Amino acid sequence: xxxxxxxxxxxxxxxxxxxxxxxxxxxxxxxxxxxxxxxxxxxxxxxxxxxxxxxxxxxxxxxxxxxxxxxxxxxxxxxxxxxxxxxxxxxxxxxxxxxxxxxxxxxxxxxxxxxxxxxxxxxxxxxxxxxxxxxxxxxxxxxxxxxxxxxxxxxxxxxxxxxxxxxxxxxxxxxxxxxxxxxxxxxxxxxxxxxxxxxxxxxxxxxxxxxx
Length: 212
Hints:
Oligomer: single chain
Largest sheet: 8 strands, mixed
Number of strands: 8
Number of helices: 5
Strand order of the largest sheet: 1-2-3-4-5-6-8-7
């Protein structure tokens, strides 16, 4: 079993990934309310009323050595804008999944997800020494599927009739992965995407100043 410091914070230019605690329940409820994320039927974002149970479940997984859960804090504002989790951690086989990732609506389609994935993938491959990282999402969650593909993950397959959901529908789950031999290239790709976001922001600021 890997020696892991669960107090680890992963810090980037735009976000900090902090270990999840019960103290984050209120802030996560506020983040989920930006866009009423729980109303998207193909996601598993909890309603604010269910957030405490959601966090407790994540912490229980941690205590069993199956997961490491993080909140995503925006550096500029200091606000909690979402969460992400290492889960289904199969330590003997050096595999894990990155899931339970969601962000407040205002943080979507920004550099946040790219940097979050860069930080947590780097932690998985460089610190936890895994040989494969998996991503799973609902067949109908096109935004998530496109975001996973943009990371550089490759589709492994589709698990048909994989899960029964609370609303009575049946989920087909699309499975993707990145393996250790691909990590160097994926890391370079994600850093390039971050540079692109930063350049776009710089151009937007310059345009605003010129037109002030």
